[in-house]
Amino acid sequence: MGETMDIANPSEEHAMLREMVRDWTKEHVEPQALEHDRDEAFNLPLLRSMGELGLLGISADEKYGGAGLDATACAIVHEELSASDPGFALAYLAHSMLFVNNLSFNGSEEQKARILPHVCSGEWIGAMAMSEPDAGTDVLGLSTTAVQQEDGNWLLNGRKMWITNGCLDDNGTPADVVWVYAKTGVDERGRVQMSTFLVEAGMQGYSVGQKIMDKTGMRASNTAELVFEDCIVPNANLVGSPGESLLHMMANLEIERLTLAAMALGISRRALEDMNRYATERTAFKSQIRDFGQIQRYIGESWAKYRSMRAYIYDTAQHMTLGKPGHRLDSDGVKLFAATAAKEIADAAMQVMGGYGYVGEYHVERLWRDSKLLEIGGGTIESHHKNITRDLSKDPEAINR
Ligand SMILES: Cc1cc2nc3c(=O)[nH]c(=O)nc-3n(C[C@H](O)[C@H](O)[C@H](O)COP(=O)(O)OP(=O)(O)OC[C@H]3O[C@@H](n4cnc5c(N)ncnc54)[C@H](O)[C@@H]3O)c2cc1C
Known about the structure:
Shape: globular
CATH architecture of the largest domain: Up-down Bundle
Low-confidence stretches: none
Number of strands: 10
Bound molecules: flavin-adenine dinucleotide
CATH class of the largest domain: Mainly Alpha
């Protein structure tokens, strides 16, 4: 038998990537996290600066300025950022996974050559717009429409809701480029036909409706409503052929869910570290509080959940080939488990830390608020229940493989 493998760092390159991102996060992300959460402010310069590290196009082809790395590398970066600042990690996810990765695997060579260098360097910030005010889980219930004009251009009309990076500041500056899903008709069986468009800042009719304020958590990321009012999009910015959006969406949702689960892992690791340290430092009734059975239950259960999600996340990552769908059972499963476990671990940390756990300076109250989003964004936990149950009915042998 050779050396045992660390599932979270399966190669030397992965371990080096983790070390690099961990050091960078400690130096640049950690010190600004509390303030940006309190101010509901997105740290745009910090996100842009990740371009120099090669992280903004982590999964994109090197010939377009990307790093060409795999799903495990994507998970590592999200875990590390999230251990300090989940809100900032979410902005990174929206850019690098929801926009850059999507374009890398679904765009044409011409679109990739034209747009990827700008988003990999951080000159442009990207977003992905699927959700609408009246349609979230029910994706095919969307009402944003795109109609092709005689000159070949498309006319987009509709509103998108909850778009991370949709606005870049508090003055209504829209994302530089957005991956937008719109309805382009119905097929011969009456099913909604959905198509994908690349909408760029400056295109007529594209604007920010509002920056959504007062979020429970993830306050260091901007969330916006986007408005498309007779927005003119050239045919060159249609991705693939009309009606192909479901294919784009299905493949990209898998890495989105894996990296959201990796964010849950970062939250869990940090919450566990903080509660473990505190349980030694704090005394009550002349004992360290870690000697109390009820505190031991919080720490013990958190450890077991943390280790379980870590193994499931990196096992799923190792089996995932970017751009190729086919891992929905586990990308749904891992997000379902990790999101709720992270929320429970952050809650346990707050309980162990008593009154101190309840205030911002001690970090875990922010993790506690941020963790809740993971049960909603990128698919609600109920949508994971539904998908897993449907997939297991189609493929019951998955249980025995
Ligand atoms: C901070 C934040 C950032 C986000 N970022 C983005 C982004 O960048 N891009 C983007 O496109 N979207 C984004 N979203 C939107 C997010 O993906 C949606 O909120 C999510 O998909 C749920 O949709 P909804 O809010 O419309 O809720 P709904 O779909 O209306 O769901 C409401 C409730 O009904 C349940 N429900 C719905 N259908 C079923 C069913 N068939 N069976 C059982 N229960 C069901 C849901 O699980 C939920 O509990 C973001 C959301 C937030 C809060």
